[in-house]
Amino acid sequence: MACENCVRGALHTGTPVGNETKFDGVDAYGNFKVILPDLFNGSRVPLWALTSLDKDVPILHRLVLFPAALLFIVPFVLRNRPRQNALITSLAAAVRASAPPGAAVGFLFDAAAACHPSGVSFPADLALVERPFSLATGVKDPYFGKSRAEEAEKKWKEMGLEVEVVVYDGVEHGWTTRADLKDPVQRKARDDVVSQVLTFFTKYLIPKEA
What we know:
Blueprint: E1 19-23, E2 26-31, E3 34-37, H1 59-98, E4 103-105, E5 111-115, E6 133-138, H2 146-158, E7 163-168, H3 175-178, H4 184-205
Parallel strand pairs: 4-5, 5-6, 6-7
Antiparallel strand pairs: 1-2, 2-3
């Protein structure tokens, strides 16, 4: 499911330190056993769409930019969405085969973490979680906000699962990848969720010394 927050955000600057490689036939970027596959076959939404709906953009500009952005976004979604489940399933199998135990943000392995999920059949999909699980979302996230997060946490604990649910203030859907790092609230939330996920995976995936 796509919304305006799926394409708006801020550019992050810096020098990548990982490596580009092929994984299960898909272009991927990674380092230290982190794999980030290109799920969109090299296509992307134009960079100007990131700020097309910002509040400081004049209203007349927004009236022009938003329809223009849709001309790119709608075909992008239609072109990529049908292949996502099969592609992710194939990649997940390849990860499991190459280096178990494994973990992935957004996909279940020995432990998993999800950030501001969308496209969730609520509450039916909650029953699909079977392993330790970490969730990060925003208070007002339109797809998985505070009330859903609290309900999900209660359900998972009733199922006897080891879970952690953290709800962040002052961030929009998609903030973990497109946060405005000049905004101290968004930057702190981004840094905190990185720490959340790394701490969680360290707890459940790194063998403890005897």
